[in-house]
Amino acid sequence: xxxxxxxxxxxxxxxxxxxxxxxxxxxxxxxxxxxxxxxxxxxxxxxxxxxxxxxxxxxxxxxxxxxxxxxxxxxxxxxxxxxxxxxxxxxxxxxxxxxxxxxxxxxxxxxxxxxxxxxxxxxxxxxxxxxxxxxxxxxxxxxxxxxxxxxxxxxxxxxxxxxxxxxxxxxxxxxxxxxxxxxxxxxxxxxxxxxxxxxxxxxxxxxxxxxxxxxxxxxxxxxxxxxxxxxxxxxxxxxxxxxxxxxxxxxxxxxxxxxxxxxxxxxxxxxxxxxxxxxxxxxxxxxxxxxxxxxxxxxxxxxxxxxxxxxxxxxxxxxxxxxxxxxxxxxxxxxxxxxxxxxxxxxxxxxxxxxxxxxxxxxxxxxxxxxxxxxxxxxxxxxxxxxxxxxxxxxxxxxxxxxxxxxxxxxxxxxxxxxxxxxxxxxxxxxxxxxxxxxxxxxx
Length: 444
Fold this sequence. Notes:
The protein is mainly α.
């Protein structure tokens, strides 16, 4: 009797488990890897292409940061269905709408989804008249699609490309509402009549993006949410704090070591000659993938979060630049200290305060450190422009060197550098605190 009861109990338990478990069947999608199991080579290729085309098209530093930010959002959002624990940026990033979802009856290759999404967004971000860039985008998309068709069935690749394009279409609609187009027709007259105000420092120079502070932020609730107001009062008097700040720039520039010159060149990131300061951090991210052996999931998170910080950094910095509108060191030094003085690096066409490179570098370093902790690395991105490589014990060390390079270059006062780093740290922390991509720590 006990034996029969035991058999019945066991049978009942098996029936219960069977009734409330998923059917013992698999779908086509179940046989394909998740984003966490795939290599991120597709992302590195597209981010490198974006850097190269920004350089070739001579895009300004603020405008470049916008493109890198949208690329990061696209990289993450397009493969969200391939990350079971992933949380959408929709509802977190400013005005980002809900994204289309996959067809559960189809199977998807997340590498091909990235290819479809990034190629479509990039094509939409650059004008149709940029023929070389549009051709480069098409060539990379076609080459990557052909490679995936060789590894998977053609229908899966086509469905994946199509889904990526659906996501891209929604993102491009969002892009179109960020106020970029409206700022193209605005005009700005350089204020005059106050000796503290910025003036052009080269013949024919035009102010760069004076209305960039009106571009819609990504994670900041307003352009000035992290602004660090200047704590240094303009003075012409010999021995005043402002005079001494300018004197430091002059004396540093007059006595540069070879190492300091190398640092100034390594981080100059001149638009039109490079992929800009924000792009320098994109190249660092490309290297971090190899250093930390990241897979597609974590790599897309990195590009997404750092991209938000890059975009917000230039909106924040440029908003404050044109409010403070402070003159460059070369102008002050030539007016009050040495009329023949020249900086090591030519001053760019926008107001001095705060240091944009200090803001963006510290913001990027804050996000990368928040995701991955203290990571020593060698930045080999300078090889592209014959600038060699530099090694750092942490992301913060790299950001600190990027910031001080502006003093060596003679284009920023120390106050703009130090306060710029504070501003960037706030921007990076804001991204980490308010954008959640999964419930567990985002870098693990």
